[in-house]
Amino acid sequence: MPADQRRRVDPARMVAFEVLKAVRVDDAYTNLVLPALLREHRLSGRDAAFATELASGTIRWQGTYDAILTACIDRPLSKVELKVLDGLRLGCHQLLAMRVPTHAAISTTVDLVRFRVSQGAAGFANAVLRTVSQQDLAAWITQVAPDAATATSHPAWVVDELRAALGRDDELEALLAADNAPPKVTLVARPGRATRDELPGEPTRFSPYGVVLAGGDPGQVRAVAQGRAGVQDEGSQLVAIAAAAAPVEGSDARWLDLCAGPGGKAALLAALAAERGAGLVGSERQPHRAGLVRKALSGSQGVLGVVAADGTTPPYRTGSFDRVLVDAPCTGLGALRRRPEARWRRRPADIAELVPLQERLVGSALDLIRPGGVVLYATCSPVLAETSGVVTAVLQGRDDVVLEPVELDVPDAEGPVPGTVQLWPHRHGTDAMFLALLRRR
């Protein structure tokens, strides 16, 4: 392509296009691949914000946009080249959900498709997007999306799981809407290393260490750049706080984060442990993620070490810890606003694969704590099989364990089992974290 045509391709839209490709081809996560692309294309400020919303919003609303595109194209979407489909989805989001003038949304998308695919594909994209532009999103939803799943861009099985977890239909619409709302950036001050007062933003509702950032790049915040504070959802902060707050009988010197990667909760736990003269071991199965934990804990007090180890067969002595956090691998359906691609990547079969792993991890953790010690089990999924199902199975399989109430002062957060906690994005503004506290007799 001639240089003058390359110059016409908007860098922010190019970044969004590259994010969609990475998610589709490499199974990348939007929140992980996007920062590197922003740096590569030297985008900041409004351009970075535009690229972020364009990429994340397009992935969130992909299901609805595909239904609209199906109505505008005279062939199955499976017959449309995937690179062209990525461009069409980006165009839909600009036309239907962003304050981009119609002519700009169409022309810039056509330029992008021309640059990345071909002249013929650009003409096809132009015709399709002109058809899309004839109605607004509400009108299109009325026409092509009569069901809640398509209208809110969630797979039907995910809607069913969330409805069952809520246990009520009157909040389902609010929950699905919250999943599609861009999350605000939340920072955490790590106790003993930073204070909340030195962080810019409004204090979080429930965590005494968090603030909601009004805007800008969190990496430019001095305490974040120095590792004394970090970016962390308030729900994740509350998991670490609850793990540290649970009373234990006797010694309280050795703590373990059994599934510590990438290290955000471990960093807060280590800071809380250091305040009490305790120490934390960070354990993570995958070596590269264990490296991320080491980086997150760099400079922290209260760190006994970081180990790359399988949590189901841990290399620690039985009864050698006083408290253990098990933030288990899960479907992640409680963090769809933050990880929009998860709704399209996960399948119902994943639940059946993950639940036995979660049960084994909790069982290992219970073996690792001494009598009187505690295990906090947490997931960023509200799916009942991963929450109450795991807790019930563990309790039925052991006579040396008792379930105790989680000590968090958060209203309207009753979990599916008495004493457990279930946070919700539409109620609490957090990811849908589940917490259960188990004590070894």
Automatic annotation (TrEMBL):
Its EC number is 2.1.1.-. PROSITE patterns: NOL1_NOP2_SUN (PS01153), SAM_MT_RSMB_NOP (PS51686). It comes from the Bacteria. It is an enzyme of class 2 (transferase). InterPro entries: MeTrfase_RsmB-F_NOP2_cat, MeTrfase_RsmB-F_NOP2_dom, NusB-like_sf, NusB_RsmB_TIM44, RCMT, RsmB/NOL1/NOP2-like_CS, SAM-dependent_MTases_sf. S-adenosyl-L-methionine binds at C259, A260, G261, P262, G263, G264, K265, E284, D310, D327. GO terms for molecular function: methyltransferase activity. Residues 161-441 form the SAM-dependent MTase RsmB/NOP-type domain. The active site is at C380. Keywords: Methyltransferase, RNA-binding, S-adenosyl-L-methionine, Transferase. GO terms for biological process: methylation. PANTHER family: NOP2 YEAST -RELATED NOL1/NOP2/FMU SUN DOMAIN-CONTAINING (PTHR22807), RIBOSOMAL RNA SMALL SUBUNIT METHYLTRANSFERASE B-RELATED (PTHR22807:SF53). Belongs to the class I-like SAM-binding methyltransferase superfamily. RsmB/NOP family. This is RsmB/NOP family class I SAM-dependent RNA methyltransferase. It comes from Nocardioides hankookensis.
